Amino acid sequence: MSTLLKIQFIIHEGAADDVYVFISSKIPHGWEETLLENERRFTLYLEDHSLGMEMVKEFKDRFPGAGVTYVEQEPEDWTMAWKEFFNPVNCGETFKILPPWLEEDEDNGTTHIVIEPKMAFGTGHHPTTSLCLETIGKIVKTGTIKAGQDFLDLGTGSGILAIGLCKLGLTGTALDIDPLAIDCAIENIDANGVTGKVDLAVGSIDCLDNSLKFKLIVANILSGPLIEMAVDITSHVKPGGSLILSGILVEKQADAVARAYEKLGIGTAQHFASGEWVCLVWENIGANQ
Q1: Phi/psi of residue 261, each to 5°?
Q2: Cα 289 from Cα 271, distance rounded (Å)
Q3: Residues 149, 170: contact at Cβ < 8 Å?
Q4: Which residues make beta-bridge pairs with 90?
Q5: For 217-227, how does the pLDDT look when each residue is reduced to its tens digit (9 = 90+)?
């Protein structure tokens, strides 16, 4: 197995959102953050050394003085590195994301989502993932999302959102265009004891039968695909259902995504923001139709 490229850099707290945008535009998976005094240390592990070196060069240009370092590391050291740096992620008042080795030590009344860190897919540290879970928790309190409903998780990745919804008593379908993502999601779903509550498949919204509709659709992907799939996504929401979209930048993308859906007659989006990112939410879509 080839070596991994371990990249680390430290930035001032005020630049964190800009760094999130930069990293998420380059890689689909998670990274590790360590909070320091007024600073954050970011750690990435990449199999693609060419991409890693490209990121190092661009990062030095964008964030001079960040102290970027990189080193080749044997794959077997990677898991131990996660155990050293992985911190639990609080996602509002409802959810908490934990690695398996910390779960037994955590009991604060939240719903736990156990994720084994992988090189290829998210650990829940990306701010859009925690924002989605926090937003789901808020909507649960209104009674719009509740046990017994069905959901579609579009672009499931490591399966975090689907697992959270299943633990709230929902059942559903999770899709991703990457077969390896589905394999990863299957492992995490089994580890969280919700096997049988969600069906997984490789594909996107166009692989669904036109008659198949869901009480809730969540899609934490990118603004471009969200706009392109607006008609298809809304067509699969049940009357009275809800839609949660994320992976969207507040300033550069939120208005464009919202307009693409609002012009379809589903109402005005609610905006739930965290730093540079936003969740767009529509509740009770077409309830009177």
Answers
A1: -90, -40
A2: 24
A3: yes
A4: 96
A5: 999 988 889 99
